[in-house]
Amino acid sequence: MTINIDKLKSMNPPHGMDFRIGKLGHIVLQVSDLEKSTAFYTQVLGLRVSDVYPETMMPGGMVFLRCNTDHHCLALVGAGERQAANQELHHFAFEVPTLAEVIRARDRLRANHVQIDFEGRRRAGCQIAVEFRDPDNHSVEIYWGVDQVGSDGRVRPQNEWHGVKSLEEAIAHPVPGQDTHLPK
Predict the structure, then answer these.
(1) Looking at the chain, which residues constitute the CATH 3.10.180.10 domain(s)?
(2) Most buried of 9, 50, 54, 74 (most Cβ within 10 A)?
(3) What is the CATH number of domain 89-178?
(4) pLDDT (tens digit, 9 = 90+) per residue, 109-155?
(5) Is 2 exposed, middle or buried (0-12, 13-18, 19+ CB in 10 A)?
(6) What is the pTM of this model?
(7) How far is the C-alpha of 104 from the C-alpha of 101, rounded, in Å?
(8) CATH architecture entry for 24-80
């Protein structure tokens, strides 16, 4: 099947929509080992547990995790049969407020022997990121600096994307308007 790029780019919400989605609220993942996955997200990524459902409330149990003052950004449901095949969900991402935190996240992942699938800058959006797998093979991204779209709807042209495959290269060769200077 050939993808019609122009048609896809021209798709917009209908005029007069009576609601507007503001942000992605949270992700809920089914995991094979609730304790192991909770340990990964708390001990390696620094999320905090807000609440836990026992198996009487949710078969397999459920853990609600937060990264800010929202009750949860991620919830884990136990009793999954096996690791994820990554066919339904490609990946999900956590934003950090500084570029230095992406570097520290990468270093922490390495120190915890987490295999890194990608680090650097992808193309569209131009965020600088590190991508890896959780214990159930879900693909996770930690990123900084995603392009913002102004009220005119224009996005960065493709000739400015400059994808690179290391954090060091992303820092050394920023895209126009991206400040990759690290405080000393």
Answers:
(1) 24-80, 89-178
(2) 74
(3) 3.10.180.10
(4) 999 999 999 999 989 999 999 999 999 999 999 999 999 988 888 89
(5) exposed
(6) 0.85
(7) 5
(8) Roll (3.10)
